[in-house]
Structure to design on (229 residues):
């Protein structure tokens, strides 16, 4: 995957992710709705490839305005990843040489790897995650829109223990997937399936689309390292 193709794919996927997010705000009060109408128009321009460097810069400024409007990243990690991708793209656009473009885009790939590894590390040092209690509480007390049948999973101690360790080991071992394109492809499919499951089970749809938007960077990064070696 070439650098230009990976950047273009990131633009399109991020534009789609933003467009999907904006629709959720169309029934909000006028001041909030207007912010996201502008964001939707910019997202469409990003998808079709119209003046992407200026559109990305405007989306970054608008993202900061939205942070101010909601007094922080109201969607947590999804908002932070959105701003990270926008920052890295803007740095790519203003980079004076291709080498610096690669550094900026490679930084996005590096942060994506860290997002999984650090998430796994935070869990594995937590006793409640190691014994399955943390995941039990997610199903039992979660404020997310989970069905009653899904909440019954909180009673399956062995299943929750297996799921907890499965998630932790996958996240901790994710950096190893960079050693080959095949292992990375498999890891990204598993990661995407994990985000998709969270979207279906708990309504965390924003994490799915925005993390997918960062995947081209790591696919390019892995190939770039492999070619260099």
């Amino acid at each position: 995957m070439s650098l230009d193709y990976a950047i273009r794919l990131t633009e399109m996927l991020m534009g789609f992710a933003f467009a999907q997010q904006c629709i959720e705000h169309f029934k909000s009060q006028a001041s909030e709705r207007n912010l996201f109408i502008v964001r939707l128009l910019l997202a469409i321009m990003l998808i079709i490839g119209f003046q992407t460097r200026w559109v990305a810069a405007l989306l970054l400024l608008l993202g900061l305005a939205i942070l101010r409007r909601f007094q922080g990243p109201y969607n947590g990690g999804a908002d932070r990843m959105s701003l990270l991708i926008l920052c890295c793209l803007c740095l790519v656009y203003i980079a004076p040489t291709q080498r610096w473009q690669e550094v900026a885009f490679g930084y996005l790939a590096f942060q994506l790897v860290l997002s999984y590894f650090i998430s796994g590390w935070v869990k594995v040092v937590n006793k409640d995650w190691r014994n399955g209690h943390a995941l039990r509480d997610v199903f039992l007390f979660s404020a997310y829109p989970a069905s009653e049948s899904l909440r019954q999973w909180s009673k399956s101690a062995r299943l929750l223990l297996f799921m907890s360790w499965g998630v932790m080991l996958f996240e901790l071992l994710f950096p190893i997937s960079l050693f080959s394109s095949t292992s990375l492809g498999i890891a990204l499919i598993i990661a995407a399936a994990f985000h998709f499951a969270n979207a279906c089970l708990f309504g965390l749809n924003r994490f799915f689309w925005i993390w997918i938007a960062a995947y081209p960077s790591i696919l390019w990064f892995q190939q770039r390292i492999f070619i260099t070696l």
Notes: The radius of gyration is 19 Å. The chain has one domain: 3-228. Residues 98-124 form the longest helix (27 residues). The mean pLDDT is 85.
